[in-house]
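Translate sequence into structure tokens.
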Amino acid sequence: MSVLIDTVAWVRVEHGRILCARSRGKDLFYIPGGKREGAESDLQTLLREVEEELAVALLPETVSHVGTYEAQAHGHSDGVVVRMSCYAGDYRGTPAASSEIEEIAWLGYADRDRVPPVDQLLFDDLRAAGELD
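Result follows.
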């Protein structure tokens, strides 16, 4: 039996690098975002998670879907799959580590091994599109 972890993520690429976050006690960086609470929509989840993690406000009218990826969930037993629905969008404020986030970083394609498998799929697509250095 497989288990699905359904998440949303904010894809922010600037100057050929993507914004990533590392939670306290974790070894890998992740695309900012997380799991929905209750009956939240993707957009509601994205706005809440990004504000909690990075202390910035996404501008809802600028948010657009860029892709959905699925892969084996890092650190989970076989058969646990994470689905990551990715959205781009503009924001107000300055990204900063907050809440459970220990560190944020702008990563390039050379840092692909520093993110989990599902994020690596996004890195591959961004590289192919010429967006990630």
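Note: The domain at 3-128 is CATH 3.90.79.10 (Nucleoside Triphosphate Pyrophosphohydrolase).
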